[in-house]
């Protein structure tokens, strides 16, 4: 089980980096930090195209996998598996 735990930890690090990049790729919705860096000047902020919808889907899917791996690693730790 040590190998499984190590693989899950490596996948968790990769998914964490990927999730960070996906979140940073999202368009600012206005208000908040995105306006501070010039995000408030965009037009059509309310409309999202196919790329934005796909980005949202990928972000949610990766986030759910990320949470599942964290729960699995927590259970490994709780029950003393490797």
UniProtKB/TrEMBL annotation:
Topology class, membrane: Multi-pass membrane protein
Record InterPro entries: SecG
One Gene Ontology cellular component annotation held by this UniProt entry: plasma membrane
Subcellular locations according to the entry: Cell membrane; Membrane
An MF annotation (GO) of this entry: protein-transporting ATPase activity
Predominant location category: membrane
GO biological process: protein secretion
Keyword Zinc-finger applies: no
Transmembrane segments: 6-24, 58-76
Domain of life: Bacteria
Keywords carried by this UniProt record: Cell membrane, Membrane, Protein transport, Translocation, Transmembrane, Transmembrane helix, Transport
Family: Belongs to the SecG family.
Function: Involved in protein export. Participates in an early event of protein translocation.
Name of this protein: Protein-export membrane protein SecG
UniProt organism field: Bifidobacterium animalis subsp. lactis
Lineage summary: Bacteria, Bacillati, Actinomycetota, Actinomycetes, Bifidobacteriales
